[in-house]
Design a protein that fits this description.
heterodimer; A: 110 residues; mainly beta; six-stranded mixed β-sheet; 0% helix; B: 122 residues; seven-stranded mixed β-sheet; four-stranded antiparallel β-sheet
């Protein structure tokens, strides 16, 4: 159970697009299409943004999208808004009823 | 509205034990798996343990395996985490979360509690 690998930080200007990568292994991301993404603002509980690699829960703007290729998944946020500034975490099923998170990425909207 | 409210956190000495609880409301509790996720101060999220709807299937992070036990009481709409042999590195905010998936495979967590704080210190 090794944590998934995410960049420590990314940044973008309002209106731009950013992509956050999430690299796993053939034991998690590479085998299962159960990658989810969470947004966390300071002092708040995490919020589900993407599940099953590409699905958006009701209420999440379509500016948020997910994808996967091989052992890596990605979260793309288009049309950046100031309220998107937060920490983002990927998560994958890893077999035997276990989940594994990425280390988290701090998104700064300049 | 679905609500998850954690309790039971506190300060404990290394080697000690603590039992966390999570009270669920606004949902049919035994329709869902549940998980515990923790966040150490200034650090990222770490999945700790999960349990399926019946309690018959559980999973643990390697960092807590053999020390922590997840359980549930569907009659009381409650989830628990028994933590033994606590270490300084277990200091964190512990969230419970509702799991979506199928009986033997958790897919993702869609509802989260605000968490309860555990501090392990001498």
């Amino acid at each position: 159970q090794s944590a998934l690998t995410q960049p420590r930080s990314v940044s973008g200007s309002p209106g731009q697009s950013v992509t956050i990568s999430c690299t796993g292994t053939s034991s998690d991301v590479g085998t299962y299409n159960y990658v989810s993404w969470y947004q966390q603002h300071p002092g708040k509980a995490p919020k589900l943004m993407i599940y099953d690699v590409i699905q958006r829960p009701s209420g999440v703007p379509d500016r948020f999208s997910g994808s996967k290729s091989g052992n890596a998944a990605s979260l793309t946020i288009s049309g950046l808004q100031t309220e998107d500034e937060a920490d983002y975490y990927c998560c994958s099923y890893a077999g035997r009823y276990t989940l594994v998170f990425g280390g988290g990425t701090k998104l700064t909207v300049l | 509205e679905v609500q998850l409210v954690e309790s039971g956190g506190g300060v404990v000495r290394p080697g000690g034990s603590l039992r966390l609880s999570c009270a669920a409301s606004g949902l049919t509790f035994d329709d869902y798996g549940m998980s515990w996720v923790r966040q150490s101060p200034g650090k990222g999220l770490e999945w700790v343990a999960g349990i399926n709807w019946s309690g018959g299937t559980t999973g643990y992070a390697d960092s807590v395996k053999g020390r922590f036990t997840i359980s549930r009481d569907n009659a009381k709409n409650s989830l628990y985490l028994q933590m033994n042999s606590l270490r300084a590195e277990d200091t964190a905010l512990y969230h419970c979360a509702r799991v979506r998936g199928v009986p033997f495979t958790p897919y993702y967590m869609d509802v989260w509690g605000q968490g309860t704080t555990v501090t392990v210190s001498s």
